[in-house]
């Protein structure tokens, strides 16, 4: 569905300023393009309550100039309706619009509403359609809702489209809590393309041809453009005619910039619509001294009706002073802003931003890609030539001027992470490649595998690695791939002794390359490198999935015996699982809550949530010490509470310095920093005591040390201990990335275990292990190996930020299935949280499950299919022992029992347990 249009907003503004008392026919004659297409008659109550009806309550109209109603704060110069004596939330005001709407059109709704009463905070006002059919049940179509306070009028906006016409269509406003009065100033329902009500009959298709960017090529000089904190100038050429436009006759420069956020801008208020995806395309360049290249960013600043501000990043490109480059990206608005400004920013102060053209269009929907076809795929077969080294170094060559030789004394068994993938396999030969005379870290043994790698297959990498004794410190060793001019990580390991170490990783190539080379690199120059048993082979995910299904059957299900009393042999029983109790959650953000489609998908398909940024310190106390913003987090928490969603608290601190806000970094005195840390702990955990089930206490300690370097080694344990004292009910987690994929030596499972044990030795009450799960090309046995290692600590493991990325949504679906099945099949894993699911609202591109305008893609379909697979349904008859038995997933169930004379429904919960669950049911 499309959303409320800018045209409807202009119509509302027009009628707020031009109150009249003409009849509908006179309105059409006198105002042309307004009432001719407004579906609602007497939209501003200038004719009292004519054509409006109440739903089991009372209403009256406050005439213009009559004053306030129960404290209504503003706009008393206009008539408005008051709906009072409301005993139920659904009671409100309605109008029959049957004769003024048609199937096939998208109608936009704009209503100006308010509330009054004795309630505190806010209450929801909702727009709904009642669809009445003579031969079917009456149905209800939710249009939109708005959280409204007593402080003033609010705009409620939404849209609807009818695929078929009911016998009656009734529009109504409802929703405030019982006892509250609903106030309505104006209601507008329009179809943007239906500009002549009588001639079109409201059957035209709704097409938005509105031009969004005005004077996009500067043909009209700087008309419609302005500087954002700087000066803008129009040119036909610059720099002694060395800079000329690539299209059109002119370009603009944003000059005299004193901050990186300064640039050229255009106000596009009213020309972009909510819930529609837009694409911005611009040609940009730099001009100035000292900086040859810098990032140029396209940004959208919006201000909501409640004055809430938001900056939406659209696109970023590395621009230079040498040539024009294209800046391109997409954006989407969840709500209808009162103000919207698009602008360019980014380069350092003093650098000019040049703009040749900027266009914003409704983003075209590309056709879904077909599933990739891999012909003659042979899984589990090593593509490395002469990996046993039976023919010396044949097939290998040294990268650089190092020397290679074949030696004996390496392990005879394949590295553990590869064994499950390879199935039956031969033992290794015990020979290895010794690399000496290494004068650069990248020098090592290499092979060209260009014609052995098939596109779209996920390859697992496995080998044994050892280093010489020329160094006393730990050394990173990696398997790398050169794919044309790109470097691809195939796995890393840290080596600090003279033992053999397993290295494992994965990769996938989705675009044909002219050359693919694999090589082993990493120890410091002068350190000898030894490599044995290098395997690179495509993994058979289907075979792995079958194995995981058997594991899942063992650990996520339980035998259930229903024992009936008062029943007859043969009584029928139907068992339906309503919800699996395993936590599946998603990251959400405050702006998402303004999109009812997002809300609907989230509430239906997830039972846990984590906030993207709203609880982080840089969001709750951003610019100035002591100046707090808990509003966004409060509203998200309230949304989750209303919908019975459990919430993780992410995060109390973040150890990576780049995430620490400026005012904290300016605290040179460590006592002041310690006081700020203590205030953060006491303020956050006291405010939300008992409301967050988990907390990530200090995010990414394996990748940062900001607080530890300033406050000492013990600060990490101190954060955990004080958090536990302030909220003993919350489980306190460590949380880090690249733990499960073999591509980062800083956060290997072994180092993560050492880190957790060190915290526990200092008294930190670590209650859970967070694995973020930002992963590419996941391989099940590598993930499972990490989980097996971490599980020795006996702590619950959660995947806390899962996302997988691929341009091809079929591959993305496969990757997501790998992650979800591995997590669900492992007994130590107690929950999975996705790091978002909606396009344009995720930190990684091409990782979404739902496209920007609400279409489910292949990854989303796979997620829902797995959720359905993990529900148990069965039916049959009570046996001669008056029992009915089944094995079902943990979670909540409904049981229907049908006898000859009656049908009863019982609910039950299947929780974890090794023994059969016996439940008695009296019928």
From TrEMBL:
GO biological process: xylan catabolic process
Annotated Gene3D superfamilies: Galactose-binding domain-like, Glycosidases
Residue spans crossing the bilayer: none
Domain of life according to the entry: Eukaryota
Signal sequence coordinates: none
GO molecular function, one term: endo-1,4-beta-xylanase activity
Coiled coil segments of this chain: none
Keyword terms, alphabetized: Carbohydrate metabolism, Hydrolase, Polysaccharide degradation, Repeat, Xylan degradation
Residue intervals of the GH10 domain: 567-866
Family, as annotated: Belongs to the glycosyl hydrolase 10 (cellulase F) family.
Name of the molecule in the record: GH10 domain-containing protein
Organism: Anisodus tanguticus
Taxonomic lineage of the native organism: Eukaryota, Viridiplantae, Streptophyta, Embryophyta, Tracheophyta
């Amino acid at each position: 569905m499309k959303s409320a249009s800018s045209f409807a907003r202009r119509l509302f503004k027009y009628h707020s300023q031009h109150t009249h008392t003409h009849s509908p026919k006179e309105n059409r004659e006198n105002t042309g393009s307004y009432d001719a297409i407004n579906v609602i008659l007497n939209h501003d109550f200038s004719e009292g309550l004519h054509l409006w009806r109440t739903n089991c309550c009372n209403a009256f109209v406050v005439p213009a100039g009559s004053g306030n109603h129960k404290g209504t704060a503003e706009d008393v110069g206009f008539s408005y309706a008051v709906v009072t004596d409301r005993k139920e939330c659904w009671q409100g005001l309605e109008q029959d619009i049957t004769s003024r709407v048609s199937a096939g059109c998208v109608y936009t709704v704009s209503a100006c509403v308010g509330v009054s009463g004795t309630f505190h905070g806010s209450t929801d006002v909702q727009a709904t359609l009642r669809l009445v059919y003579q031969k079917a049940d009456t149905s209800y179509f939710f249009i939109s809702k708005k959280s409204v306070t007593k402080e003033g009028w609010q705009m409620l906006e939404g849209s609807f489209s009818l695929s078929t016409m009911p016998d009656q269509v009734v529009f109504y406003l409802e929703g405030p809590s019982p006892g509250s009065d609903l106030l309505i100033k104006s209601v507008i329902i329009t179809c943007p393309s239906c500009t002549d009500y009588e001639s079109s009959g409201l059957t035209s298709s709704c097409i938005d041809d509105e031009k969004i960017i005005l004077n996009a090529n500067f043909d009209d000089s700087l008309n419609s453009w302005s500087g954002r904190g700087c000066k803008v100038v129009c040119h036909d050429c610059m720099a002694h005619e060395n800079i000329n436009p690539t299209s059109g006759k002119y370009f603009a420069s944003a000059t005299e910039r004193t901050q990186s956020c300064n640039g050229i801008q255009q106000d596009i208020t009213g020309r972009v619509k909510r819930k529609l995806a837009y694409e911005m395309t611009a040609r940009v360049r730099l001009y100035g001294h000292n900086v040859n290249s810098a990032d140029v960013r396209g940004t959208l600043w919006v201000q909501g009706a409640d004055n809430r501000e938001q900056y939406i990043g659209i696109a970023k490109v590395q621009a230079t002073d040498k040539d024009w480059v294209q800046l391109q990206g997409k954006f989407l608005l969840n709500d209808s802003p009162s103000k919207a400004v698009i602008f360019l920013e980014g380069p350092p102060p003093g650098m000019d931003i040049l703009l040749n053209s900027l266009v914003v269009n409704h983003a075209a929907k590309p056709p879904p890609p077909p599933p990739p076809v891999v012909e003659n795929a042979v899984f589990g077969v090593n593509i490395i030539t002469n990996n046993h080294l039976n023919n010396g170094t044949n097939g290998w060559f040294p990268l650089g001027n190092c020397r290679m030789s074949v030696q004996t004394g390496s392990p005879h068994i394949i590295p553990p992470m590869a064994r499950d993938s390879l199935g039956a396999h031969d033992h290794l030969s015990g020979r290895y490649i010794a690399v000496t005379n290494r004068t650069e870290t990248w020098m090592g043994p290499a092979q060209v595998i260009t014609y052995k790698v098939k596109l779209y297959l996920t390859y697992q990498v496995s080998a044994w690695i050892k280093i010489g004794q020329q160094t006393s410190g730990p050394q990173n060793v990696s398997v790398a791939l050169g794919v044309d001019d790109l470097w691809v990580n195939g796995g890393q390991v840290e080596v600090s002794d003279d033992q053999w170490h397993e290295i494992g990783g994965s990769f996938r190539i989705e675009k044909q390359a002219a050359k693919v080379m694999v090589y082993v690199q990493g120890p410091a120059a002068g350190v000898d490198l030894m490599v044995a048993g290098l395997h690179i082979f495509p993994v058979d995910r289907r075979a792995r999935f079958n194995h995981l299904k058997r594991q899942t059957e063992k650990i996520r299900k339980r035998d259930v015996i229903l024992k009936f009393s008062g029943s007859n042999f043969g009584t029928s029983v139907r068992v339906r699982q309503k919800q699996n109790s395993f936590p599946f959650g998603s990251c959400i953000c405050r702006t998402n809550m303004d999109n009812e489609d997002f809300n609907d998908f989230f509430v239906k398909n997830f039972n846990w949530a984590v906030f993207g940024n709203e609880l982080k310190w840089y969001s709750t106390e951003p610019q100035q010490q002591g100046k707090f913003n808990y509003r966004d987090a409060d509203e998200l928490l309230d949304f989750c509470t209303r919908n019975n969603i459990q919430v993780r608290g992410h995060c109390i601190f973040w150890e990576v310095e780049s995430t620490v806000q400026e005012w904290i970094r300016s605290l040179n005195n460590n006592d002041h920093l310690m006081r700020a840390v203590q205030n953060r702990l006491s303020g956050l955990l006291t405010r939300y005591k008992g409301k967050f089930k988990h907390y990530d206490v200090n995010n990414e300690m394996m990748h940062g040390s900001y607080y530890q370097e300033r406050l000492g080694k013990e600060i990490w344990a101190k954060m955990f201990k004080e958090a536990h004292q302030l909220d003993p009910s919350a489980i306190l987690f460590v949380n880090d990335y690249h733990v499960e994929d073999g591509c980062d030596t800083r956060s290997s499972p072994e180092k993560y275990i050492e880190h957790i044990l060190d915290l526990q030795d200092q008294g930190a009450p670590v209650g859970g292990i967070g694995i973020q799960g930002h992963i590419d090309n996941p391989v099940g046995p590598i993930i499972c190996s990490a989980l097996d290692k971490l599980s020795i600590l006996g702590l619950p493991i959660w995947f806390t930020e899962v996302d997988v990325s691929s341009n091809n949504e079929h591959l993305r679906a496969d990757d997501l299935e790998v992650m979800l099945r591995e997590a669900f099949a492992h007994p130590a894993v107690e929950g999975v949280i996705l790091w978002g699911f909606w396009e344009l609202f995720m930190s990684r591109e091409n990782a979404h499950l739902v496209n920007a305008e609400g279409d489910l893609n292949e990854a989303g379909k796979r997620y829902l299919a797995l959720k359905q697979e993990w529900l148990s349904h069965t039916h049959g008859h009570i046996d001669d022992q008056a029992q009915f038995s089944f094995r079902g997933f943990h979670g909540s169930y409904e049981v229907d029992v049908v006898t000859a004379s009656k049908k009863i429904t019982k609910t039950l919960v299947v929780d974890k347990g090794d023994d059969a669950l016996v439940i008695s049911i009296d019928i």
